[in-house]
Design a protein that fits this description.
Elements: H1 9-12, H2 18-31, E1 36-45, E2 48-58, E3 72-78
Antiparallel strand pairs: 1-2, 2-3
Length: 79
């Protein structure tokens, strides 16, 4: 996500999830081009993986309807 290397998605997501992940990540990086994500924790069991991470970015392009605000958010935690 940080480097915008969409070509690695096929190796990280199952074949049925990769196209949707690519669309979501591409549009998110367009709206927040300076996005920086940090993995806090990854838990894997069998074929399932759950992650916690933090995210920081500046809203520079339309994202899901709202126009860009130019505002920055820092270290928002996600599960």
């Amino acid at each position: 996500m940080n480097a915008g290397q969409l070509e690695v998605i096929d190796g990280l997501y199952s074949a049925d999830l990769a196209p949707g992940a690519r669309r979501w990540i591409r549009s998110f990086r367009t709206a927040f081009p300076d996005v920086q994500m940090a993995v806090v924790e990854l838990i894997a069991e069998g074929d399932k993986v759950v992650g916690r991470f933090t995210c920081s970015a500046t809203h520079q392009w339309t994202w899901r309807g709202p126009p860009p605000t130019g505002r920055r958010f820092c270290n928002i935690a996600e599960v």
